[in-house]
Amino acid sequence: MVLRILNLSFYLLPALCLHAQPSILPDSLLAHVRELSDNRYEGRRTQEPGNLMAGEYLLQRFRAMGLKPLDTSYVHSFRFYNRWLRESFTGRNIIGYVRGSVYPDKYIVLSAHYDHVGRKNSKIYNGADDNASGTGALLEIARHFSQHPPRHSIIFAAFDAEELGLQGAGAFVDEPPIPLENILFDLNMDMVSRNAKNELYICGAKHYPFFRAPLEKLAEGHPLSILFGHDEPVPTPQDDWTMSSDHGRFHQKGIPFLYFGVEDHEDYHQPTDDFERIMPEFYTKAVGFILESLLWLDGNWEEIGSGKTESERQGKH
Questions:
Q1: Predicted TM-score (pTM) of this structure
Q2: Are 8 and 214 in contact (CB under 8 A)?
Q3: Residue in 225, 219, 220, 221 with CA at minimum distance from that of residue 195
Q4: What distance in Å separates the CA atoms of residue 199 and residue 282, rounded to the nearest whole number?
Q5: Distance CA 58, CA 317 (A)
Q6: Whether the Cβ atoms of residue 204 and residue 248 lie closer than 8 Å to each other
Q7: What is the pLDDT of residue 303?
Q8: Interval 195-214: pLDDT, tens
Q9: What angle do CA 144, 194, 240 make, to 5 degrees?
Q10: pLDDT tens track for 93-106
């Protein structure tokens, strides 16, 4: 046990220095959210013109950063039927990746949905926090890794049709472009740009406890309150975020996940979820911490193991 703690401390030392060396460019990060939550995109509802325009914006950014497509294209189209709306839809996942320098055939999925709910009663629901914020974070973190290749390959998945039932993520795991057993975990971002209490939640460690110790260590001294929770139906079923966003589809397949997000605010799914209500300092720090977490997990995955119990991991030493 002592040796295990010492080893963990050794691996964490380089990552802890990242607080003083942020790799996030605030202007770039905010520019993505400002663009995607503009009225021109008309709320980015799946299959509508504004959603297709958002997909083209993502394609341009992926190409400019030099991300590689999985298969032959960045665009992975899928069809589904929404029984509640009694309507068929065509969605488009926009997916690129950076090849790992050490473990190229093992993949981390970094995900965020880029769709939102569109127009209602002539009002545009721009979805700045939900989820232009996660999409902007996806692009900014992709920029970092395009310049600093990770040890494991990282898939950058901008999922469509999350608002219609996690359909894009479901299409990805049901017809995966790579073997599911080669996916180490999904890190999903949905609503990460504002919180009046300065709180950023991490959901998933209840299901996959091996994530908690290193992320708690990274959170020490961070200017945001990094909290764990919302991964069990306590005190009410609504407090459980396990299936609340795209990470839920990975969890259903037995793939570990982490979900970074904030609690609902008064503008959630309202036409007032606009760029002007983003909290730039909170947003930049939140995305910086997500990047730190991803850097540490990529650098030390073989140490913490994938899905192993604490006793199994201790048995290595």
A1: 0.90
A2: yes
A3: 225
A4: 9
A5: 45
A6: no
A7: 87
A8: 999 999 999 999 999 999 99
A9: 95
A10: 999 999 999 999 99
Residue with tokens 């504004």: 50
Six-digit token pair at 70? Answer: 């999985």
Query: Tokens in use for 280?
Result: 């730039």
- State the average pLDDT for the chain: 91
**Which domains, from first to last, does the chain contain?**
2-314 (3.40.630.10)
* Alpha carbon 233 to its chain's center: 22
Q: What is the 3-state secondary structure (H, E, C) of the chain?
A: CHHHHHHHHHHHHHHHHHHHCCCCCHHHHHHHHHHHCCHHHHHHCCCCHHHHHHHHHHHHHHHHHCCEECCCCCEEEEEEEECCCCEEEEEEEEEEEECCCCEEEEEEEEEEECCCCEEECCEEECCHHHHHHHHHHHHHHHHHHHHCCCCEEEEEEEECCCCCCCHHHHHHHHCCCCCHHHEEEEEEECCCCCCCCCEEEEECCCCCHHHHHHHHHHHCCCCCEEEECCCCCCCCHHHCCCCCCCHHHHHHCCCCEEEEECCCCCCCCCCCCCHHHCCHHHHHHHHHHHHHHHHHHHHHHHHHCCCCCHHHHHCCC
Query: Please, which residues have CB within 8 angstroms of residue 20's CB and are 6 or more apart in sequence?
Result: none
Residues in the chain, overall count: 317
